[in-house]
Amino acid sequence: MLTKAPRGTKDITPKDAYKWNYVEKKFRDICALYGYEEMRTPVFEHTELFKRSVGDTTDIVQKEMYSFKDKGERDITLKPEGTAGVVRAFIENKLYADTQPTKLFYITPCFRYERPQAGRQRQFNQFGLEALGSDNPSIDAEVIALSIQFFNEVGLKDLAVSINSVGCPTCRAEYNAKLKEYLDAKVDVLCETCLDRKDKNPMRVIDCKNPTCQENLTDIPYMIDHICDDCSTHFEKLKEYLTEMDVNFVVDKSIVRGLDYYKKTAFEIISNDIGSQSTVCGGGRYDGLVEQLGGPKGVSGIGFAIGAERLLLTLENNDIEIENPKSTDIFIATIGDHAKTKSFKLLKELRYNHISADNDHLDRSMKAQFKYSDKINAKFTVVIGEDELNNDSVTLKDMRASEQTTVKLSELVDELKKRL
Ligand code: HAM
């Protein structure tokens, strides 16, 4: 047990860490292009925050949260998603008082107690962003375009973008009444979860994967067919902006999303390569959430989150390789104790000149040191022994060209600067 990580968690070893660095940097770079700045919020928050935002009746809040009482008897939860914390921080730090919109991104671990499978973990990572302070559909188009540019630049071009409108409080109330009426007539065929959802959160029935529900609810009314004029104008404008940017999208009426805060735009980006866990990005608008969490009235918001594990899995399944940038410039092979001691001055000088350098820490033979130099992909190997020290000259081997030259020890750093 001590040598096994908890179920649903994964180590990221150096074999993969460079890939994470690559995609994280790409996400940061793309966010910067669109004017999004980084926001870091705590890994845990008050449990109430998620109940109020994600929603009491959602699977996340009901079944999946890592919640506990801390030693001060506070109800604490490890964040199951990034939006709630960012909105809380937006209010607490009064970011709404600055010029709007406030455009924020984050890279964060999240925690959900789910059944682990490929692309689904209990600790996973989200690349997310939130744009607060504008209810204009142009910002909906912007966040969708940003995510697509990010996916494109990491090598994924073949993605399905699905958008929907889940209405606003005005039209949702009317729709919910219609939907409830419809579902009341179907109580005989609804699964237990849907019977419960029917009264508490009827729209979530659309997301049910139970085959009996799916078979019997084919004529279920969809929100988008009942949205008000305001929601409709918003959605039409969004489509117009996306079309202008040549974004290939489809309207998928069945997108309801598993979190309660969504209003108007909801969207998902799908990759078909990794089986059932194919949604690499999900997001939408959450007008009203700022006020609901105690912030000022009328501050809108929209954002998305990309599942980083799913992204990397998709890249792998598409044979998109990320180059490992690791390579050592210089390996210093030494013969004898005196040479090893003296090599430290050179190592320091190289590293202070930002030339990466390594040496032997296992008292290997010369042959084994060269083998190691090969393994770490060193560009040059410098050989220092007693003779080399006495004559102020070292052997410099260009590992790629397999060529050897003699260089004055005192001139070595300058020589390497020229050659690297
Ligand atoms: P979400 O759809 O719950 O949305 O999660 C976003 C993405 O996180 C999913 O599409 C998926 O790629 C990834 N994900 C979710 N659960 C897991 C898991 N157990 N293991 C691996 N990856 C997972 C949200 O979290 C919203 N906060 C997104 C948002 C931001 N909406 C507005 N702003």
From TrEMBL:
Keywords: Aminoacyl-tRNA synthetase, ATP-binding, Cytoplasm, Ligase, Nucleotide-binding, Protein biosynthesis. Residues 1-325 form the Aminoacyl-transfer RNA synthetases class-II family profile domain. It comes from the Bacteria. It catalyses: tRNA(His) + L-histidine + ATP = L-histidyl-tRNA(His) + AMP + diphosphate + H(+). Its EC number is 6.1.1.21. The keyword Magnesium does not apply. Pfam families: HGTP_anticodon, tRNA-synt_His. It is an enzyme of class 6 (ligase). L-histidine binds at E81, G82, T83, R112, Q126, E130, R257, Y261, Y262. One of its GO terms (biological process) is histidyl-tRNA aminoacylation. InterPro entries: aa-tRNA-synth_II, aa-tRNA-synth_II/BPL/LPL, Anticodon-bd, Anticodon-bd_dom_sf, His-tRNA-ligase, HisRS-like_core, HisRS/HisZ, HisRS_anticodon. Transmembrane segments: none annotated. GO terms for cellular component: cytoplasm. It is found in: Cytoplasm. One of its GO terms (molecular function) is catalytic activity, acting on a protein. CDD domains: HisRS-like_core, HisRS_anticodon. The keyword ATP-binding applies. NCBIfam families: hisS. Belongs to the class-II aminoacyl-tRNA synthetase family. Homodimer. This is Histidine--tRNA ligase. It comes from Romboutsia weinsteinii.
